[in-house]
Every structure is written in C-alpha cells, then in structure tokens.
Amino acid sequence: MITIALSKGRIFEETLPLLRTAGIEVLEDPEKSRKLILATNQPEVRVLVVRATDVPTYVQYGGADLGITGKDTLLEHGTQGLVSPLDLQIAKCRISVAVRSDFDYASAVRQGSRLRVATKYVAIAREFFATKGVHVDLIKLYGSMELAPLTGLADAIVDLVSTGNTLKANHLVEVEHIMDISSRLVVNQAALKLKQAPVRAIIDAFAKALAK
Ligand code: PRT
Ligand code: MG
To answer: Does residue 162's CB lie within 6 angstroms of at least one atom of ligand 1?
Structure first.
C-alpha cells in the first residue's frame, strides 16, 4: 500500500488534476465526506486527509509515504527524514513582512530598533531578520496574524500573501518580500528505498504530469 498525505482546501484542489494526469482518481470528496482515509481507483494507493502543518510530520515518521506541502510549512518543519524531489508549482503565494500603513518600517530598521514580529513562521522570520541584521522579538501565533499590528501586539507580521486583499482589508502594507512559495512533493526517505518501485512510479507520474 502507498499512502499520500494531503491537506483539505487549496492543496487538495490543486493536486487533484496532477493526480488525475498521473492516473490516480480519488474516489471521495473530503469536503463532503467525513472520512480521513480516501480510496483511489488504484487499490494500492490511498490518500490521508491531514492538517496542512501535519503533512511533513506524517511523511517524516512514515505515517504516509508521500505528501504535498507548502514550502513555508516544509521550511518551518525541517527536512529531516524527508526527500523533496519536485516543486509542483501549485498553491503559489509569497511570504512577506507587513506593517500598519502608518508604521515607518524603513526608519525603524535604519535606527536599529528592536522590532516585535508576530508570525506562524518563526523559523523563516528568524532566519530572514538575522540575515538582514535586524533585531526582533518573535511572537508565535497560529492564525489571524493581521490582528497583531492592529492591536499593538506587534509592529510587524510575517505571513503568506496571495492577492494582497487580506492585508488591504486590514490596513496593512507589504514592506518586504521574503520568498516565493509553492507546494512540494515530499517523500519518506525510508519508503524511497523500501517501496522503491511503486514510490518511484508515483514521483515519475507527477513529474510527467508537470511537464504536460
Ligand atoms: O487553514 P488551516 O489552519 O487548516 O491550515 P493552513 O492555513 O496551513 O492550510 P491552507 O490550506 O490554508 O494552506 C496550505 C498552504 O497553501 C500554505 O501552507 C501555503 O503554502 C499555500 N497558500 C497559497 C496559502 C495561500 N496561498 C494563502 N493566500 N496559504 C494561506 N493563504 C492565506 C494567508 O495566510 C492569508 O491569511 O490567505 C490569506 C492571504 O490571501 P490574500 O489573497 O488575501 O493575499
Ligand atoms: Mg488557512
């Protein structure tokens, strides 16, 4: 049996056409069914429905052989025990620094002030500001990061941006583009050896589907 971990929502939706091109049809809709293990048209391939942030964990510990996860999630989790052979070019966005439109970010950075930064992406934020030589106090949040600068919890946030509408609606502006994000196929290192033929077949099918 080959198990693929996917999260509901945009990653699932954008993965389906790739799976289909690879000859794998998921037989149930996770938005309608309460099942967390979904069968496919291939009796030896099944799909697990997990939280987006749990995908690397399932694949690292072998709860799933393969998974699809955002580069943001993968960088936060770390790549131990994982091989990431393909950038699937789906669920694209960017990770940015944003502040209230009335906050003078440039002069705060120039003056070497200590910035309070709220984010779900503590590892990415720490690395980015360390490289820039900016001192930061990082505040870990699990969602609705946009509220932090509005309530005085933080000076800035590090968050994903796609259209920019969420920032705009909350009177925030993007002041740094940290990196572009898309989703990756990740594979359990041991499965790549122990289940070499079927796992390779799925990686190759994804690679072919991407090339189409
Ligand atoms: O929602 P949940 O808490 O279950 O988990 P999750 O937020 O980690 O999962 P999900 O499905 O929302 O996101 C999964 C992956 O999709 C992320 O890890 C990214 O790699 C990718 N992705 C692509 C995005 C976006 N685009 C995106 N726009 N993830 C989140 N957003 C959010 C962003 O956080 C912000 O709140 O959308 C809002 C901004 O969108 P715009 O269009 O208003 O700029
Ligand atoms: Mg979300």
So the answer is: yes
